[in-house]
Amino acid sequence: MMSSLAQPIAQATEASPRSLAGATRRELAAALLEAAVPERDLRMRSAQLWHWIYHAGVTTFDAMGNVSKALRSTLAGQFTLARPEVVAEQVSADGTRKWLLRFERTGAEANAAEAECVYIPESDRGTLCVSSQVGCTLNCSFCHTGTQKLVRNLTAREIICQVLIARQRLGDFPGLAPPKDGLVPGQGLRAVSNIVFMGMGEPLYNLERVRDAILVLADGDGLALSKRRITVSTAGVVPRIEELGLTTGAMLAISLHAVRDELRDKLVPLNKKYPLKELLAACRSYPSASNARRITFEYVMLKGINDSPAEARELVRLLKGIPAKINLIPFNPWPGAPYECSDWPAIERFSEIIFNAGYASPVRTPRGRDIMAACGQLKSETEKLRARARMIAGE
Ligand code: SAH
Questions:
Q1: For residue 241, what are the domain limits?
Q2: Ligand 1 close to Cβ of residue 300 (< 6 A)
């Protein structure tokens, strides 16, 4: 598996989808040229469609009031505004929602690829956790997603559509109502205010598409999400970290989890390729990191493995000079996992050492555990159900 890391995967063919939902500006302009829109009208037409697709969230060309009837029908003849299919929606007791999405099958695939996307409402924000790949190649030993084989990179369109779908389901486009069974942030706030690339996959192994997607999400004429509210989390693909900062301006999160190479090699095998020293050097020079734009270090709390006070002190030492915040994540168990979550007093002790050193050290409250939507649990349930169905069918 390790040898496949540098050049991971079969790419989805970009040509097949004829839907304009999730299109980049370049793709939209190309589509309009194809629909015989004259060059001189291209800017105006692109701007109109962009507004309808991303600001208004419409799903038919007919809803585009200021576009001529003739063009609407030409477009409808050649394109759609279809979004990936929502195969399942689960709502947790705490308001967390998880959607299983099925993407259009590419030529090379026997089955359509599926990925999950999770919405986490809080009083002052709503965070959408999006996937960048179907499955993952990294094999982190505590992550369930890592035990499933990678199918492919998601396209920019498929990443953007996760946001369109979530906003639609949450009633977050003009004229829609919020779901009756749902929690969304307080009055006047957008249901989806923050995006984290913390779903399935390693975003920096799919950086071109992640970048294209971020530029669409942050486009002021459309979805208009603030770049300060878009965070990309990486297990540490060092050679691409600077590029992420330069080309997207997104916030950076690092899945650190250990303070010594020997242990990190085991938890995050990618560490063998890009050890701690190189990773932290890349963080030190991350473009536009500052005290107002801190890098988040994620640290999963594993009982008896990485949760001692000495390790907390070492963490503080390692991060010296980096504008950082530390996010302690209680380990979310999954069937057959080789780890347990640290005891609460151990988490508190760890957090206190970091806090006393001057860092914010919030402990991430596990959300959506009842629907297997918490960190590292994605896709597993669906796969399990499927495996059971196969067993029952006697395969
Ligand atoms: N590949 C990227 C994106 C995944 S983000 C990355 O590694 O950063 C998902 C986050 O959840 C990562 O910080 C990951 O380390 C963490 N995680 C994975 N499995 C977990 C589990 N079982 N319990 C808690 N956190 C987990």
A1: 85-386
A2: yes
